[in-house]
């Protein structure tokens, strides 16, 4: 009986400590992910300028496709990065993986700002750009998955969807800052100034932002879930080998479901300003403003969708998102040429809302489909394979489809086909939102 009082007295303290750690994890995940995707998104928003700086400018379409090819190639390293960061995260802890990934991303992004252009050093310019983009891709491959797994393991089961939705919200916030900076530059700087030095400004911000994010992450504690798993793990075991031996079906389903995020995210939130300006004749300023509105609607809806996934389950939400993309994508793209700029803004808001249904649910779904000992690796590898094959190539494929088919609706049909594939995968999987993480 002497143990009873101290035990009960410790419960409020344990609860307070858990709540404090959860809030610290939420802040660190948001800030770190925000920094990483601001760095990563800056390239996508300034692709047209980067094309003119780093590639021969004889053919505008070819130069733009070259810039997007570099964007796409940098994604090819992401599955390898997913294996590497998954190994670090599952073997040694979520915290070291997250703190090192943000440092590498920020350094690579900062160095892009210092690169000379094609006019100065010729072919060496795009080669160096590609190398630094590969480092960016390697770093980003551990970010989304690590932050999601970290929050999923800290959050109470009934709020797991809400807390993991912080990750896509922070991603969109980083892209929003990049979009606003791009819009501001096109509004207040001349085209010559942007091509000469203005495009470097977002990349220069990477250094201070990255140092702040790393400092915050170094102050985190490991999740209790990981600590228990690490005690039971065999020292010689390798997460990627366990993943392929025991979780192949989960890995395939996770990949197929993540493909919708990969294509929709980069088409709607990254490629769209270029699509509007290059294909639809919308001004640069209006294109980026419309993209910013889409991002704002996405961020506004994302926490609601995470909460709804806690209430109705991940499967129901992901099915809803897939069906909405299948039904609405082509009609919405068809309306871009009607009704002026107000119609463009409305379409962007609708796209942002539909995407949030999928992305507000996806981090929790991918965290729940894998057990703790391979969660980081499983999430990172499946998510990054989807992004390497379909996400990073989405702007390039969209540009090529329009060029080869002559149809400005071709990216919409592409997104619709991927949504159908994701729908089949979601229906084949199991909803684990009511289960305790294993």
TrEMBL record:
Compartments reported by the entry: Cell membrane
Q: Which Pfam families does the protein's record reference? A: MFS_1
Segments crossing the lipid bilayer: 37-55, 67-88, 100-132, 162-185, 250-268, 288-306, 318-338, 344-366, 378-400, 412-429
> Does Iron show up as a keyword for this record?
no
Q: Which InterPro entries match?
A: H+-coupled_symporters, MFS, MFS_dom, MFS_trans_sf, Sugar_transporter_CS
Entry protein name: MFS transporter
Report the leader peptide range: none
Q: Which family does it belong to?
A: Belongs to the major facilitator superfamily. Metabolite:H+ Symporter (MHS) family (TC 2.A.1.6) family.
Q: Taxonomically, which superkingdom?
A: Bacteria
Q: Where is the Major facilitator superfamily (MFS) profile domain?
A: 25-434
Q: Which Gene3D superfamilies match?
A: MFS general substrate transporter like domains
Keyword Membrane listed? The answer is: yes
Where mainly found? membrane
């Amino acid at each position: 009986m002497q143990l009873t009082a101290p035990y009960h007295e410790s419960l409020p303290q344990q609860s307070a400590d858990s709540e404090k750690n959860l809030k610290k994890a939420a802040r660190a995940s948001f800030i770190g992910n925000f920094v990483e995707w601001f760095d990563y998104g800056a390239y996508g928003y300034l692709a047209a300028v980067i094309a003119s700086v780093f590639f021969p400018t004889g053919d505008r379409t070819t130069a733009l496709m070259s810039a997007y090819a570099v964007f796409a190639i940098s994604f090819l390293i992401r599955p390898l990065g997913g294996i590497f960061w998954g190994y670090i995260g599952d073997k040694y802890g979520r915290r070291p993986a997250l703190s090192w990934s943000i440092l590498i991303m920020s350094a690579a992004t900062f160095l892009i700002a210092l690169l000379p252009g094609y006019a100065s050093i010729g072919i060496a310019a795009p080669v160096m750009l590609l190398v630094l983009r590969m480092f960016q891709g390697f770093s980003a491959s551990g970010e989304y998955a690590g932050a999601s797994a970290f929050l999923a393991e800290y959050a109470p089961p009934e709020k797991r969807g809400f807390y993991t939705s912080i990750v896509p919200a922070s991603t969109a916030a980083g892209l929003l800052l990049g979009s606003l900076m791009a819009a501001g530059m096109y509004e207040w700087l001349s085209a010559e100034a942007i091509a000469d030095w203005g495009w470097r400004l977002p990349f220069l911000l990477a250094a201070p932002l990255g140092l702040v994010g790393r400092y915050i992450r170094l102050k985190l504690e490991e999740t209790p879930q990981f600590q228990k798993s690490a005690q039971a793990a065999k020292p010689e075991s390798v997460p990627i080998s366990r993943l392929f031996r025991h979780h192949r079906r989960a890995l395939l389903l996770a990949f197929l479901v993540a493909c919708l995020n990969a294509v929709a995210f980069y088409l709607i939130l990254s490629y769209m300003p270029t699509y509007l300006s290059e294909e639809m004749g919308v001004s640069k300023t209006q294109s980026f403003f419309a993209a910013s509105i889409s991002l704002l609607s996405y961020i506004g809806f994302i926490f609601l969708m995470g909460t709804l996934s806690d209430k109705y389950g991940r499967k129901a939400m992901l099915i809803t998102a897939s069906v909405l993309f299948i039904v609405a994508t082509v009609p919405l793209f068809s309306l871009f040429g009607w009704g002026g700029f107000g119609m463009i803004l409305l379409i962007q808001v609708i796209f942002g809302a539909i995407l949030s249904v999928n992305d507000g649910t996806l981090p929790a779904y991918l965290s729940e489909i894998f057990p703790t000992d391979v969660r980081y690796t499983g999430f990172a590898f499946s998510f990054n394979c989807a992004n390497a094959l379909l996400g990073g190539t989405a702007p390039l494929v969209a540009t090529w489809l329009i060029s080869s088919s002559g149809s400005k609706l071709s990216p919409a049909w592409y997104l619709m086909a991927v949504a159908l594939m994701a729908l089949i995968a979601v229906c084949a999987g199991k909803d684990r939102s009511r289960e305790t993480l294993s």
